[in-house]
Structure formats: C-alpha cells, structure tokens
Design brief:
Blueprint lengths: L1 E6 L2 E4 L4 E9 L5 E8 L6 E9 L3 E6 L7 E6 L4 E6 L8 E8 L13 E2 L3 E6 L1
Parallel strand pairs: 2-11
Antiparallel strand pairs: 1-3, 3-8, 4-5, 4-9, 5-6, 7-8, 9-10, 9-11
Length: about 130
C-alpha cells in the first residue's frame, strides 16, 4: 500500500503562485508514475501533470496543455515527496487538487490507471 497526503493548497489572487506537496509513505516503486489531477465543482477529474520514473534515474514529465509553461511537477530525492509548483494562477485553476501514484500506467492522463490517491487539497484563485 502507498499512502499519499497533499498539502499546500489555499486562497490566492490571480497571477499568484502556490506550491503543492504530496508526501508518500508505505511501499515504494523503482519504476513508478506520480500524477497530479484536479476536480472543479460539477466537472470531471482532469489531468494536470505527471512524472514517470524509469530505471531509478530517468524521469519524464507530462503536462496538460492548460497548465504547460505555468506549472512544474517535480520529485524530491529519495522520491518520497512530490511537488506541483503553480505560477500565474487563474480563476479557472480553482479546484481540489489530488496526487496519485501507480507502479505502471498505460496513459498518464487517465485517472483510472492510478492505484493510489491522496485526499485532495483545495486551491482557490480569486479574480
């Protein structure tokens, strides 16, 4: 089992920044995917960003078009904490943000491919 706990959400004005953290505990993977998703009221959960690690050293990052250039996803050594740096936040970024993890995924953007989820943290961007 893997336990994920997000933190760092809050209220920020448009144009501001927040950094979300996701602390992982329990079983770890040598090859694994960690993703960030968000869900706004009345909308489906959508992909934000992900990091795929291979062979313990190679990492590949993926971003949704809506956040590319504004958000940065990273993992800290020894890989038990993940971050989502969010800059130039806009009101449409308002949502509950979740981190998720899996040993392997076929599609990094598909919520159904992830095995473990955090409880979520609220991000609210005011105009």
């Amino acid at each position: 089992q893997v336990q994920l706990v997000e933190s760092g959400g809050g209220l920020v004005q448009a144009g501001g920044s927040l950094r979300l953290s996701c602390a992982a505990s329990g079983r770890t993977f040598s090859s694994s995917v960690v993703g960030w998703f968000r869900q706004a009221p009345g909308k489906e959960r959508e992909f934000v960003a992900a990091i795929r690690s291979r062979d313990g050293s190679k990492r590949y990052t993926y971003y949704a078009d809506s956040v590319k250039g504004r958000f940065t996803c990273s993992r800290a050594n020894p890989d038990n904490t993940m971050y989502l740096q969010m800059n130039l936040l806009q009101p449409e970024d308002t949502a509950v943000y979740y981190c998720a993890a899996a040993a392997m995924v076929g599609n990094v953007g598909a919520p159904s491919d992830y095995d473990y989820w955090g409880q979520g943290t609220q991000v609210t961007v005011s105009s």
